[in-house]
Amino acid sequence: MPLVPLRDLLDRSAPTAAFNVIQIEHAEAIAAAADETGAPVVLQISENAVRYHGSLAPISRAALAIAASAVSPVAVHLDHATSEDLIREAVDLGFGSVMFDGSALGHDENVARTAAVVRRCHGRDVSVEAELGEIGGKNGVHEPGARTDPDEAARYVEATGVDALAVAVGSSHAMLTRTATLDFDLIARLKAAVPVPLVLHGSSGVADEHLAAAVRAGMRKINIATQLNKFFTAAIRAGLGDDPVLVDPRRYLGAGREAMTTEVARLIRVLEGR
Ligand code: G3H
Ligand code: ZN
Question: Which UniProt keywords apply (predicted)?
Answer without folding.
Answer: Metal-binding, Zinc
